[in-house]
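### Sample
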Amino acid sequence: MTPVVTLAKRGKWKKRVLRLAIFGIAALLVWCLALYVLVVRFEGRPKDGKPAPSDVGIVLGARLWNDEPSPGLKERLDLALELYRGGVFSNFIVTGGLDARDATITEAEGMRNYLVAQGVPESAVEMDELSRSTYENLQFAQDIMDSNDWHTAVIVTHSYHGSRAADIAGKVGFSPVQVSVTDSKVLNVPYHQAREVLAYTKWLGMKLFL
């Protein structure tokens, strides 16, 4: 085989590899854009922001700061309190285990303490102290619902997190799926929206095997 023929074949393979690389990058961008749209356009379920009266409100966990809810987590808790005081539900499930190696209490304990300090009876707050992901948040919360003979729930989280939470809730078996969301005034929202695209991708992959 002459050097000219060999170079020609190599050139063809390089072009094919380049085309495949361009196609792969384009497909990845389309995928990320589609998920990003789902993330940023979610306004709650139902969309009018008025969930039906339910047995319990489930507040999805987030970080504690010095054993107290972080400013972002307080936003979720304050929305849950608003719904509670408006008569949407009369019980809470707060979710989340230890969020750092040096944590002394779980996310759920910190959230419970905050709600009690705001006037919620401790008897009205159930805790999931084991979960480490949104999927586990909702799976373990449903176990608590079953043990209390509760059938309906409103899931409370941030807007950027709502679409994935709703999809997970449907997979876990919540019916109806109700998700109330709050926009954040304290978080770096673009960062969390971008991060959520990656988390959503991971969830959809995991969902295939459930």
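Helices lie at 3-41, 71-85, 107-117, 134-147, 159-172, 189-207. This sample (YdcF family protein) is used throughout the tutorial notebook.
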